[in-house]
Write a structure and sequence with these properties.
alpha+beta; 2 domains; 3-stranded antiparallel beta sheet; 5 helices; about 25% strand
């Protein structure tokens, strides 16, 4: 999946490769959409947004949320969390 749809340009950019059938002939066209890789991972961003001095249980819930979000946004469908597994994730168990 990854190799079919993404190309790492090295450094901080990547291309998403979009392939579509065009017009009546149905020939395939390819568009490349460049985007910048994030400098922080999801866990770091969530922790950065958690107010300093938060209670330990709030920090743990933020970490559970980051884990759930990472699993939902997994690029590979085979590795991505299923909807049922997501509903059973510890993040929801603690609500």
């Amino acid at each position: 999946f990854w190799q079919q749809h993404f190309e790492d340009n090295g450094g901080s950019t990547m291309d998403f490769i979009c392939r579509d059938a065009t017009g009546i002939s149905g020939s395939e066209s390819e568009r490349r959409i460049a985007f910048t890789k994030p400098t922080l991972d999801i866990k770091a961003r969530v922790l950065q947004a958690t107010p300093s001095g938060s209670a330990p249980d709030e920090v743990q819930q933020a970490l559970r949320f980051a884990n759930l979000l990472e699993r939902c946004l997994e690029l590979s469908p085979e590795k991505r969390i299923t909807p049922i597994a997501a509903l059973r994730h510890p993040f929801f168990a603690q609500l």
